[in-house]
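Example 3.2
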Amino acid sequence: MKRLIAEREKARLGGGQKRIDSQHKKGKFTARERVDMLLDEGSFEEFDMFVTHRTTDFDLGNEHYLSDGVITGHGTIDGRTVYLFSQDFTVFGGSLSETNALKICKVMDQALKVGAPLIGINDSGGARIQEGVRSLSGYASIFQRNIMASGVIPQISVIFGPCAGGAVYSPALTDFVLMADKTSYMFVTGPKVVKTVTGENITDEDLGGASVHATKSGVTHFVGANETEGILLIKKLLSYLPQNNLEEPPLAICDDPADRLDDKLNTIIPEKPSTPYDVKDVIHSIADNGEFLEVQRQYARNIVVGFVTFNGISTGVVANQPNYLAGCLDINASRKAARFVRFCDAFNIPIVTLVDVPGFLPGSAQEFDGIITNGAKLIFAYGEATVPKITIILRKAYGGAYCVMSSKQLRGDVNYAWPTAEIAVMGPIGAIEVLYNRSLNAIESPEERAKFVAENAAEYREKFSNPYEAAKYGYIDDIIEPRNTRFRIIRALQTLSTKKDVNPPKKHSTLPL
């Protein structure tokens, strides 16, 4: 018994007090501290505490640490079981060894077997070089399990330190990535290699810091100001997710009346069609208690995605953002929304789509970089999704972008429009310039041309660019009063709770990657 107590104490010290102090000086917690912060008190059941590495080369035979640089096991968050691993930077810089990888693979296998979310806390210098291909094979084994678990259990990667080289691909294969500002970074090749190969001088932060991946690459979905905030974000995220793909998301307790009206919504759309507004104001207005967990907040800001609850029902929201690029769909926005829609569909989370989109972003840069293929990803995601899909057209829904944003033809279950909706092949002014091209060419005076366009645009808007035309053909199920939006969504979700929609049997789809 004495030996057991002593060995456990030794394991809990990781690489020793000196290295623990060094971790704290960097503004970082230790692997075990992170586990304690994340899990319900007293719920952690640790696996493989006494594992050590098997390598003797390069004097590693003289240095052994219990747990070998990664803490693994399971516990509960708000009473719900999760499996996790937490890399220990105090032991060989958290580097991945053969035994280290075996520990991680064990909890991944167990999480998949019992159907519980998997959380990986990354803080590692990469592969343990002294072990050569054995450490590399460990990465590959982890990748394979990430792939097998995809769409079966939620996988969340937390980056609380370095994550470089092959290590970055496991987080990239998971559903959500969270980074801590200023203390975490991710890149395939570090600044030294970049300098050697390209001659470029760049810092860790500028190459792969949280800000870079939140705004430019889109690799990370959440950024915590520090590790404490990051852990709170993970707990919040999990509250919207089911345990696995065979279960429904948890039903939250809701004290916000389902029939609550918000008169501000009746006037939130500006009278001038080109005037922007913040679609998040709409989301906060209709969600339970105004709460909205936005995903990839700083990336592709022309589209907004995230989680809310409606009368306690966990729901994914996709919304065009008129405040940024007029809400146009571009490459990044299409990929961002497509990935989110596919996640929601995989885990039985209904999708509410708020539409105000003038079209796809024009220009050679978009065309050359593949707006066609990337826009098709969003079409594919919506068309393939079998969860309840509710669409509300707030203002503009023009051209192909109308089709893409969960239209009735892409199996939208309930499609509503506000009275301010404009549904047409293109905007009135553009339409007039096409329809009356000859007449306009015959008018020499710019003032007369502008007058001609304005008069005919008003007529076009009256005839075509309104929700009643679409409603006449059944493409819109109803035109609703904006202030009543919350209640109509909740009633639709309740009605669709027994929806059954099945795709044709196939090995897998050929998504336009």
